């Protein structure tokens, strides 16, 4: 980067007048214009077909520059460059965003330090349903990135956006046939390899689109198809304590070693139709289908010490050899049908959308345990990577006896149906233009969850003769962190259970408490004005949302042995005002300010009316949801400056602040009004105010002016600093105690850097992603020493793509080059809560495109 460019950023940040530097124009890559309607002309830019990242970044930067609010954009041409197969992987490289991983793969997205359930995900304007029971957050590893044309992250909330987020909204944009000029197709095949599992992983995807004439009219009807399939097998080595430390004695009470064998299949389909019979009318259909089948076999060894144990000291305890074997399938579908009609200065858009998500886990072994007592000799070594020490019998099959088998059959389903009408009027004046816009939206959302749990035990009384682990032993477990011995055969267990009548072993209490249904009806309307002058823009307005909720669940009273059906109703109304502004300080520099309001409804797990009351030797204990929880709201402030150069480049600095009301957390309300006689009453409550603030820095820069190979370099980097605080409270001998905590899932620092080298035929990119530690959960609300933190994490990826000819390209990718592990600790880093390794992955690819 040239010194003048850095000097501009420093001077601009200090408010000093300085001429903005302009970078030399780079020779462009071959492009082709896109067919556009009048309504799209201001939103879309020239379609660029290239093997590299440069042009994809150029389109994204231009869209961000033209936006009224603060947005970040990932274009299709840039998705997957680093083998970012799912939407979550692609989004982790955007400023202020970080990813929550599952088995090393990105699953949920945090925006500006706010947890995934505090953000929303929509598909062409329709909010997506969430497949997981209890959650509103959409698992974005379900959706292949191949199916999308772009992803937009809106960090400022405007009145025409549906409520449902505090951090921002992730908008998934589908491709259309009119995005490209004429017929287009692209076919990609990849072959991946996971080093730790020694497994090959095939992937194939294809895109086809074309426009067709009708009568004397050309390019009236458009069809776009996309399909993707990915079969990935890998292993995970894990050791975790789950926070089971006695920190007063610095002793470990329990830990578990786990070896995962995982297979994940992703299947995605998209069909998008467009009909444009006149210049003033569009009709469209957008559809998405995605299936994520996750098969997981987990061999575990659970070590429970008789007394809290320090490393290297031997003592008594129990070891349980455990098997979990399940296949979980998640599906997300979405269909949007609509029309946009233009009548002079008026525009009318009518749209209906539906989204459905489900998660099915049929008859899975939730836990099969073989246990053995050891009078002495059990110990452990290590801090992050705990290793078991003991007699040779710990790895043998003899001595372990079948204790319990838990089987579960579960499914959850969520549907979201909506219809909306938007009307806009353009009022053109000599020095400015105003677009008045208003609309209404009606939504219906339903979430149902069911789980049947079956507990098999006392096998000798059932006439089962084979009770030793030797009767159910499988192959030796491939576990990279320690010696393990033979695993447990799922087939042998199912064969043993087959003669038993399943319903005789149903746990009626757990099954009833786990099942619920929640219906939400939301009526919304908004009014806003978008005022644009030559060098400025103001968006002002407000949204009104009214929702009614009916929740149904079950209660169980351990004292009386009675079940009861529960029904709870709730209603809420909110005004959500916003003011979003931008001002062009020069042709290259933009200043932005925004005030917006956000609202998030509590998660389904938090508001379900399930209730469990237990009398534990005279101690009255209860665990229940809270259907009366208030929604979380936030007042958001954004202030930023952006500088764009004429070729490819942007520097930006954005300050943000969020004042959050009704923060929700899990608490023990025993002793509080209504629960005076309880010894323990665990539920969710609205807490005191919380806040989060931070600074986002972003730089995209193409090197130029050297007149040699250095002009082929491109750098894309961002850095976000965040801080937050929330207050939790509890009763201690009748006195209300409090302590301050950071918001869960909020990293103080997140950063990305990608260095690219691109010629007409070759594209290389090396990227690193960093996030600092963050609070994962409260281990003990009264004692900060037991808070669970996820440790700092850095991942490094590399990709290369070579254009063989104008139609064929070859690619190579290496992911997790440094073999970064996942580490979670309790209070201090030396107290393991969870440690996992996943290994490196490599991918070879071939792409054929008719560009």
Fold and architecture overview:
The protein is 6% helix and 60% strand. The protein is mainly beta and 851 residues long. It has one domain: TonB-dependent receptor, beta-barrel domain (Maltoporin, Chain A), CATH 2.40.170.20. It has a 22-stranded antiparallel barrel. A hairpin with a 2-residue loop joins strand 32 and strand 33. Residues 1-52 have low confidence and may be disordered.
Topology:
Blueprint: H1 3-13, H2 54-66, E1 71-75, H3 87-91, E2 97-102, E3 105-111, E4 120-123, E5 126-127, E6 148-154, E7 169-174, E8 184-194, E9 199-214, E10 217-240, E11 245-246, E12 251-278, E13 281-309, E14 315-343, E15 346-381, E16 387-389, E17 401-428, E18 432-457, E19 473-476, E20 486-488, H4 490-497, H5 508-513, E21 516-533, E22 536-557, E23 562-584, E24 589-600, H6 604-607, E25 611-616, E26 619-624, E27 632-644, E28 649-661, E29 664-668, E30 680-686, E31 690-702, E32 713-732, E33 735-741, E34 749-758, E35 762-771, E36 774-777, E37 788-790, E38 793-803, E39 808-815, E40 822-826, E41 832-837, E42 841-849
Parallel strand pairs: 4-7, 22-25, 26-30
Antiparallel strand pairs: 1-6, 2-3, 4-5, 6-7, 8-9, 8-42, 9-10, 10-12, 10-41, 11-12, 12-13, 13-14, 14-15, 15-16, 15-17, 17-18, 18-21, 19-20, 21-22, 22-23, 23-24, 24-27, 25-26, 27-28, 28-31, 29-30, 31-32, 32-33, 32-34, 34-35, 35-38, 36-37, 37-40, 38-39, 39-42, 40-41
Keywords: Cell outer membrane, Membrane, Receptor, Signal, TonB box, Transmembrane, Transmembrane beta strand, Transport
Main location: membrane
Signal peptide: 1-24
């Amino acid at each position: 980067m040239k010194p003048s460019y850095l000097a501009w950023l420093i001077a601009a940040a200090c408010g000093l007048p300085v001429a903005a530097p302009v970078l030399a124009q780079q020779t462009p890559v071959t492009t082709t214009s896109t067919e556009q309607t009048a309504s799209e002309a201001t939103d879309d830019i020239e379609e660029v077909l290239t093997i590299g990242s440069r042009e994809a970044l150029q389109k994204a930067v231009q869209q961000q520059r033209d936006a009224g609010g603060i947005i970040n954009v990932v274009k299709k041409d840039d998705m997957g460059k680093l083998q970012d197969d799912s939407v979550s992987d692609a989004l982790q490289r955007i400023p202020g965003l970080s990813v929550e991983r599952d088995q090393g793969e990105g699953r949920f997205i945090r925006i500006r330090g706010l947890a995934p359930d505090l953000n929303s995900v929509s598909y062409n304007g329709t909010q997506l349903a969430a497949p997981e029971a209890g959650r509103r957050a959409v698992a974005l590893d379900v959706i292949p990135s191949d199916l999308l044309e772009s992803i937009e992250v809106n960090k400022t909330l405007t009145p025409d956006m549906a409520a449902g987020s505090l951090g921002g909204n992730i908008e998934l944009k589908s491709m259309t046939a009119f995005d490209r000029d004429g017929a287009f197709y692209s076919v990609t095949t990849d072959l991946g390899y996971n080093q730790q599992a020694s497994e090959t992983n095939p992937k194939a995807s294809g895109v086809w689109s074309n426009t067709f004439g009708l009568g004397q009219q050309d390019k009236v009807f458009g069809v776009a198809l996309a399909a993707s399939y990915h079969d990935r097998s890998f292993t995970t080595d894990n050791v975790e304590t789950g926070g089971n430390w006695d920190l007063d004695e610095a002793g470990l009470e329990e830990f578990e070693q786990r070896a995962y064998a995982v297979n994940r299949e992703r299947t995605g389909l998209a069909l998008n139709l467009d009909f444009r019979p006149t210049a003033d009318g569009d009709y469209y259909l957008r559809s998405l289908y995605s299936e994520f089948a996750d098969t997981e076999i987990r061999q575990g060894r659970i070590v429970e010490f008789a007394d809290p144990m320090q490393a290297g000291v031997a003592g008594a305890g129990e070891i349980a050899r455990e098997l979990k074997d399940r296949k979980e399938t998640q599906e997300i579908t979405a269909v949007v049908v609509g029309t946009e009609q233009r009548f002079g200065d008026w525009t009318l858009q009518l749209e209906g959308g539906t989204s459905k998500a489900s998660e099915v886990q049929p008859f899975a072994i939730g836990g099969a345990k073989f246990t053995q007592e050891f009078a002495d000799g059990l110990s452990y070594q290590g801090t992050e990577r705990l290793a078991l020490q003991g007699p040779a019998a710990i790895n043998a099959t003899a001595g372990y006896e079948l204790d319990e088998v838990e089987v579960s059959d579960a499914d959850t389903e969520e549907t979201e149906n909506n219809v909306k009408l938007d009307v806009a009027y353009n009022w053109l004046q000599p020095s400015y233009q105003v677009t008045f816009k208003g609309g209404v939206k009606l939504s219906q959302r339903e979430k149902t969850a069911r789980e049947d749990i079956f507990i098999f035990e006392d096998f000798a009384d059932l006439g089962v003769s084979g009770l030793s682990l030797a009767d159910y032993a499988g192959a030796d477990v491939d576990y990279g962190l320690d010696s393990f011995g033979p695993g447990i055969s799922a087939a042998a267990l199912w064969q043993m259970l087959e003669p038993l009548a399943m319903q005789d072993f149903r746990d009626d209490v757990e099954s009833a408490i786990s099942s619920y249904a929640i219906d939400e009806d939301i009526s919304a309307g908004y009014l806003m004005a978008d005022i644009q002058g030559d060098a400025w823009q103001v968006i002002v307005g407000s949204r009104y949302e009214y929702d009614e909720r009916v929740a149904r669940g079950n209660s169980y009273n351990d004292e009386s042995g009675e079940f009861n059906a529960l029904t709870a109703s709730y209603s809420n109304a909110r005004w959500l005002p916003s003011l979003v502004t931008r001002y062009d300080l020069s042709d290259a520099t933009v200043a932005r300010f925004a005030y917006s309001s956000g609202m998030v409804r509590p998660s389904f797990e938090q508001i379900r009316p399930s209730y469990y009351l237990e009398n534990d030797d005279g101690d009255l204990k209860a665990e229940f949801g809270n259907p009366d929880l208030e929604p979380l709201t936030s007042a958001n402030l954004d202030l930023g400056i952006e500088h764009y150069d004429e070729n490819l480049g942007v520097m930006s600095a954005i300050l943000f602040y969020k004042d959050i009301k009704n923060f929700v957390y899990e608490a023990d309300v025993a002793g509080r009004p209504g629960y005076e006689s309880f010894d323990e009453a665990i539920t969710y409550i609205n807490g005191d105010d919380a806040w989060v603030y931070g600074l986002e820095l972003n730089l995209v820069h193409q090197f130029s002016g050297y007149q040699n190979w250095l002009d082929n370099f491109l750098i894309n980097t961002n850095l976000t600093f965040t801080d937050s605080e929330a207050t939790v409270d509890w009763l201690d001998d009748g006195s209300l105690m409090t302590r301050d905590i950071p918001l869960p899932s909020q990293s103080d620092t997140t950063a990305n850097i990608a260095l690219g080298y691109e010629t007409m035929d070759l594209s290389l990119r090396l990227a690193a992603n960093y996030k600092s530690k963050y609070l994962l959960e409260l281990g003990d609300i009264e004692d900060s020493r037991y808070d669970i933190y996820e440790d700092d994490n850095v991942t490094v990826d590399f990709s290369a793509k070579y254009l063989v000819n104008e139609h064929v390209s070859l690619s190579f990718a290496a992911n997790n080059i440094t073999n970064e592990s996942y580490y979670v600790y309790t209070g201090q880093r030396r107290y393991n809560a969870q440690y996992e390794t996943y290994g490196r992955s490599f991918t070879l690819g071939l792409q054929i495109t008719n560009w």
